[in-house]
Design a protein that fits this description.
The complex is a heterodimer of chains A (284) and B (314).
Chain A lengths: L1 H16 L2 H20 L8 H23 L4 H6 L1 H7 L4 H35 L4 H28 L3 H15 L1 H19 L17 H7 L3 H21 L7 H26 L6
Chain B lengths: L3 E10 L2 E11 L4 E5 L6 H8 L7 E6 L8 H7 E4 L11 H12 L5 H7 L15 H13 L5 E5 L7 H16 L3 E6 L2 H7 L2 E6 L2 E7 H8 L3 E7 L6 H6 L4 E7 L7 E7 L5 H10 L4 E8 L2 H14 L4
Parallel strand pairs in B: 3-7, 3-8, 5-6, 6-7
Antiparallel strand pairs in B: 1-2, 1-4, 8-9, 10-12, 10-13, 11-12
Helix pairs in contact in B: 3-4, 8-11
Classes of the chains: A mainly alpha (284), B alpha/beta (314).
Keywords (chain B): ATP-binding, Nucleotide-binding, Transport
Protein name (chain B): Copper ABC transporter ATP-binding protein
Pfam families (chain B): ABC_tran (PF00005)
Chain lengths: 284, 314
């Protein structure tokens, strides 16, 4: 564990010196501030809705920032030769990946917390109150979401043989889970199920919404971290509200908990697979 | 227990056999030179010792441990100066040494380490501004952290100026005096010749020979040339010398107006030298200077690696 934290601390020091940390923090702060200012222009008294919408804008940016932070975490070390410096010291390949992962996650979480902090100040100035539950739930969910994307990027980084391929792979993942997911992947898998089950019900699945789809659809859709994040926004707020103040939610627990589990899996499984693969590769 | 032991280690990359059936034993406490031209398979062999690359077949033991099974245990007791390494360009040299000290869980003083390799005054400068030689010094310093039992130095002299090479030699000798085993590779011979107890020569993926520097010289080319400066070369000298058993050839450069002559005598055994000098003096010459030319390791090495790639040995 000592090696993991030593590697992570050095990598964070490098992120500070290279201004990566400042860049990520500044970018996210500016984006969310712009979003909030635009949304709160016509605010009457309830801050919740525009605030949540402002936080939603993170949903688009977090994956991109996470990808930039994570894609070269391992392959970059291999290409530069820095991996030889690291692995000449008492450590293992697994510790190197985990150390890099922790470092990149720390940078992202710092950027998230700082930019959310700025958002809190802006909200307070505008409405003179801080909606604690929505903010807290947003930070928790965003951190989990960021972890999922960094997990994917670091996993890819451990498996590919060049930085160029890493870029191609992470861009491919973003395209798959973003635009392609709703347009092609979900309709295709719906048609496939229709074919298997011989159902004659003709719903236009390309424009299917959660409400009128079959139950399994709610699960399949959430396999994409983008969808899982989108679907969990209100659910996680409800959960936090229940935990802090009691009450109940009308949301279905099954697909929503599944969505959170999916995010957790994306945060862990790609890195684990990356470690497994990287342990078996020749580092020339 | 041997510090390094490989048994029948081979490495194949797709179609090419980078390393073929290498058996190597480096005894504890010795300074061992690993020689060969670039592309000979030295780096692949060292990469296998460090578990950067896995052997296709064969077994490796470093300080009694398989580096593939227990890389951390091996790295804990080994100091490594790898080839083709890179640092964090934006972080200072001291930060790198501190990381190493952290990883070894050592209580070494980073400044003392940097002083030892001659980086005094550059501790807090970003490594990105270091010259190649300074980086190499830093890498050497990092290898020395926590007083390792085994030092593996891959081309340690590359990028070093003559001063750096002197520092390197001093450090290798000091470490060897403390009982550290040193394994160093090079394609430049004079450094190895100066510090190593034994030498292995590798070419084309195969280990050609393992021997002491002197033993290597004897095996490869036992001849040494005696060069005598004389006031004048007597006509009978070549004849008289050729009568000696262990003289292989005589080469004469006759005297002229402005310089005396020289007689070069190739001896197959150094014991014949005094007899040869005697013969020249009997012939009537006055010997003004005596020189001996041993074949340099560089020539021997070239001869060895050339002949092996031609498929014929001397």
């Amino acid at each position: 564990m000592n090696s993991v934290t030593a590697i992570a601390r050095t990598d964070i020091a490098d992120a500070i010196h290279s201004r990566t940390l400042w860049g990520a923090t500044g970018l996210m702060t500016v984006l969310v501030a712009i979003s909030w200012v635009g949304l709160s222009a016509n605010l009457v008294e309830q801050a919740d809705t525009p605030l949540l919408t402002a936080i939603d804008s993170f949903g688009l940016w977090v994956p991109l920032v996470a990808i930039v932070l994570g894609y070269e975490a391992v392959i970059g070390e291999r290409e530069s030769g820095r991996i030889r410096f690291h692995l000449g010291l008492p450590s293992t390949r697994r510790e190197l990946i985990v150390g890099k992962y922790l470092s990149r996650v720390s940078v992202l979480v710092t950027a998230l917390v700082v930019s959310t902090g700025v958002l809190v100040v802006l909200v307070f100035v505008r409405v003179d109150e801080i909606p604690l539950v929505p903010l807290l739930s947003a930070v928790i969910l965003l951190a989990l979401y960021g972890l999922a994307w960094i997990g994917m990027a670091v996993g890819v980084s451990s498996v590919v043989s060049s930085k160029t391929r890493a870029v191609a792979a992470v861009v491919g993942l973003y395209a798959l889970f973003g635009p392609l997911w709703g347009q092609i992947v979900l309709p295709a898998c719906t048609r496939f199920v229709q074919l298997l089950t011989g159902t004659t019900q003709s719903v236009d699945f390309a424009r299917l919404t959660y409400a009128d789809g079959p139950t399994w659809f709610l699960y399949v859709a959430r396999l994409s971290p983008l969808e899982a994040f989108d679907a969990a926004r209100y659910y996680i707020r409800d959960l936090l509200e229940i935990a802090l103040m009691g009450g109940r939610t009308t949301a279905a627990h099954g697909p929503n908990l599944f969505g959170l589990a999916v995010l957790l899996c994306w945060a862990i499984v790609p890195v684990a697979l990356g470690v497994w693969f990287f342990d078996r590769v020749d580092l020339e | 227990m041997a510090a390094i032991e490989t048994n029948g280690v081979s490495k194949r990359f797709d179609e090419t056999h980078a390393v073929r059936d290498v058996d190597l034993t480096v005894e504890s406490g010795e300074v061992f030179g690993f020689l060969g031209p670039n592309g000979a398979g030295k780096s692949t062999t060292i990469n296998m010792l460090l578990d950067f690359v896995r052997p296709t077949t064969g077994a490796i033991s470093i300080l009694g441990v398989d580096p593939q099974e227990q890389p951390r245990v091996v790295r804990r007791r080994t100091g490594v100066l790898p080839e083709g390494y890179a640092f964090y360009d934006r972080l200072p040299g001291r930060r790198h040494v501190e990381l190493a000290i952290d990883m070894y869980e050592s209580d070494d003083d980073p400044i003392a380490i940097l002083d030892r390799v001659g980086l005094t005054g550059d501790e807090d400068t970003a490594v990105g501004t270091y010259s190649k030689g300074m980086r190499q010094r830093l890498a050497l310093g990092i290898a020395l952290v926590d007083d390792p039992d085994l030092l593996i130095l891959d081309e340690p002299s590359s990028g070093l100026d003559p001063n750096g090479i002197r520092t390197l030699r001093e450090i290798v000798r000091e470490e060897a005096d403390y009982g550290t085993t040193v394994f160093l590779s090079s394609h430049v011979l004079d450094q190895v010749e100066a510090v190593c107890d034994r030498v292995a020569i590798m070419n084309d993926g195969t280990l050609l020979t393992v021997d002491t520097v002197d033993g290597l010289r004897d095996t490869l080319d036992p001849n040494s040339t005696l060069v005598l400066s004389v006031d004048a070369v007597p006509d009978s000298a070549p004849q008289r010398l050729a009568e000696l058993d262990r003289v292989d050839g005589v080469d004469v450069d006759s005297a002229s107006e402005d310089h005396g002559g020289t007689i070069s005598i190739t001896c197959t055994d150094s014991g014949v030298k005094s007899a040869a000098i005697g013969r020249v003096e009997e012939a009537g010459a006055t010997v003004t200077d005596i020189g001996v030319e041993d074949s340099s390791l560089e020539e021997l090495f070239a001869a060895y690696t050339d002949s092996s790639s031609d498929g014929e040995r001397r």
